[in-house]
Amino acid sequence: NFHCHCPRDCLSGLRDRPTEWLQHILESNEVEYRKNPTDAQVTQAREDAGGEEGALIKCSVNLQKEGRDGLYDEVCGEKTEEGHAGLCAKHYREYLVHVINTYALDP
Q: In 3D, which of 2, 35, 14, 36 has the Cα closest to residue 102?
């Protein structure tokens, strides 16, 4: 799965791995990582839902997109899953890969 021009910590080589596999790499190396949304994400979701407890948290990663008038910023807004630190599946895997690379773990 690795490309010849990529280092072993290449995002494209790891991002397509299952979330559980990436988590196992971190846990087996005793590296702490986020699993729960931040208090700010919970508060924002509650405000967006009119104060409703347990409101759906949406991914808050900022994306830069290209439009007719040039580049613009937009929040991802995808649905999040429990245990994914308030991120959508794609951005949570990218976060886990970032942590793996930060600690120079060799999967």
A: 14
